[in-house]
Design brief:
alpha/beta; twelve-stranded mixed beta sheet; 16% strand; globular; binds S-adenosylmethionine; binds iron/sulfur cluster
């Protein structure tokens, strides 16, 4: 058979241009459906992996987005296909009248509306938050030993947070997830105990690798306990099997269930096995910047658009541009990696 000549062009394929309709998509085809909103940079605690112990300068109140402004951005994002919203901070429960904001956001109609909290103010607020439309909460708790817990969170009380977990369940803010930042030599000897806590309570304990987002810049690679090691230590006692498939699940946690059917845990391997390829998240900081990655060094100032009379179409364009500008990965493991200027409480984890 005679070969058919193939025309090979020396011209590069044209760079894709940003779509102005359809879902929020980036250059790599990742569709963004999850928005994390930081409602405040303030916090009542000073966790060692997040904030400095003293000398925090808060963002002036006039620079913090109002409830009306947050609602407007959330609504535009919803129109662009965002269906999952998480409130965070700082500590979201220190923002005055937070239940009013939840009610406003609840009316927009997200299929998932959740909050990450340190739990200190939750026992009192859980029923009102649930009534306002909050669906579930993640509560941070890095140790089951009261003194160690207080040492890590600097101002936290374990008993209060355990009460908050009960209150959240009674209010129906479930499935309840418990966030544990694992730090070598600090709390890694409790990995098995915390897995036991997940088995005893039915709560999903999520072990998070320590990320270079602490204000004190004390992060070192040697303080990261790799997710693989966390899984091995638990499996030695209670065998685990995967409960999620990364290729089809955009959630940051890899989920595992106990083979004997007694519950589930998660590992968030942001450092050793990044999940950037399936990332569907973008973030709004308390002072009104859109960040397309926790580790991004650039931001898109949506507050300027809001306060200069911008239309919903202008806001939508900015959201699209922020997503379109997202890099392929966070680059923590690249030699050229630069820590972002903002630490975790300033970004919103
Ligand atoms: N104040 C709330 C809380 O602590 O749950 C919400 C905000 S906090 C920034 C969100 C989550 O980020 C928490 O689960 C916290 O443990 C986690 N986090 C903070 N700094 C971190 C770091 N350097 N590495 C990994 N996770 C971190
Ligand atoms: Fe506050 Fe949460 Fe940061 Fe701890 S992790 S200092 S509770 S914002």
């Amino acid at each position: 058979m005679k070969a058919v000549p193939i025309a090979i062009s020396s011209r590069r394929p044209p760079a894709p241009s940003m779509p102005t309709t359809g879902p929020l998509i980036d250059v790599f085809g990742r569709v963004h459906t999850d928005l994390r909103i930081s409602v405040t940079d303030r916090c009542n605690l000073r966790c060692v992996y997040c904030m400095p112990e003293e000398g925090v300068t808060w963002v002036p109140r006039s620079e913090i987005l109002t409830f009306e402004e947050i609602e407007r951005i959330a609504s535009v994002a919803h129109d662009l296909g965002v269906d999952s919203l998480r409130l965070t901070g700082g500590e979201p429960l220190v923002r005055a009248s937070i239940t009013d904001l939840v009610a406003r956001l609840g009316r927009i109609g997200f299929s998932d509306l959740s909050m990450t909290t340190n739990g200190s103010g939750l026992a009192r607020l859980a029923p009102a938050l649930a009534a306002a439309g909050l669906m579930r909460v993640n509560i941070s708790c890095d140790s089951l030993k009261p003194e160690r817990f207080a040492g890590i969170r600097r101002r936290g009380v374990l008993a209060t947070v355990l009460e908050a977990m009960d209150a959240a369940e009674q209010a129906g803010l479930t499935p309840l997830k418990i966030n544990v930042v694992v730090m070598a030599g600090v709390n890694d000897d409790e990995i098995v105990d915390l897995a036991g806590f997940a088995r005893d309570t039915g709560r999903v304990v999520r072990f998070i690798e320590f990320m270079p987002l602490d204000a004190g810049e004390a992060w070192e690679r040697s303080k990261v306990v790799p997710g693989e090691e966390i899984l091995a230590r638990i499996s030695n006692v209670w065998p685990l099997e995967p409960a999620s498939e990364r290729a089809v699940d955009a959630a940051p946690a890899d989920r595992y269930r106990f083979v004997d059917g007694c519950g589930e845990i998660g590992v968030i391997t942001s450092v050793t096995r990044a999940f950037c390829g399936s990332c569907n998240r973008l973030r709004l900081t308390a002072d009104g910047a859109i960040r397309n990655c926790l580790f991004a060094n650039g931001e898109h100032p949506v507050r300027d658009v809001l306060r200069s009379g911008g239309s919903d179409a202008d806001l939508a364009l900015l959201l699209r541009q922020a997503v379109w500008a997202k890099r392929a990965g966070h680059g923590i493991n690249d030699p050229s990696f630069l820590r972002p200027a903002r630490s975790m409480s300033m970004i919103g984890g």
